[in-house]
Amino acid sequence: MRVMSRTFSAPDGTQLAYRIQGKGRPVVCLPGGPMDSRYLGDLGGLSAHHQLIFLDLRGTGRSAIPEDPSTYRCDRLVDDVEALRIDLGLGQIDLLGHSAGANLATHYAARYPHHVSTLALIAPGTRAVGIAITGETRRELAQLRQGEPWFRSAFAALEAITEGAGSDWEAIAPFFYGRWDTAAQHHHAASRPSNQEAVALFGAEGAFTPEATRAALATYEGRALLLAGEFDLNSPPQAVAEFAGLFPDATLSVQPGAGHYPWLDDAARFVATTAAFLRQAA
Description:
This protein has 10 helices and 8 strands. By secondary structure, it is α/β, with parallel strands linked by helices.
């Protein structure tokens, strides 16, 4: 399927890039990380149903590094999404955010609710709305994977991390996939953020104002989909369910057997769920 690449100028003059894949009603897709949007692929084949527009956040992928590093902060990236909407010539957008990108999508919907027709938050980060995820929650979820051959070493590393006594993040990577097979291992290796400054400053002080964001979401008139993976330690179903409860009209979906990248774990199920939601919202 043909992929088109384009660029546009952010309000501060930073050149940002996006790629377009597929046909149909457009959906603007925001990656997590912050990192190159290529790790999203075509979201398991969702491009067969929609025109997917993948933004490379500033300083990642083909987008330029900004002169002012403070613009990496999540709330300030909202201006980039708005500039993309204007560049696309769309009055409203269907907006999809994955992981940390869901924080950005949430910020955008809170600030520009009338510019968002539907909101799809996939394995969403919850910092924008102040939902904390405890170490105990992650450990309990991890124990569902006890039958996996990698479990013992990965769980030991997870316990060390949650207790503040370890930092072996590579060891716990299998927990973020429904299947720790060759495809998952290749995806993990190719999905590491390359701009550590962007990662560090994304959630810098002032990036999130949970009370204000919650208040804005309580009056959001569009439909929202919050999709969690059954085994996702980053965005546990319990936390995603609490997030869904902040919207007047939200659909919560927990994908069985999935981790943090549900379109990899079961592409057919992920596409069916997401495409059905977007179709109903059209």
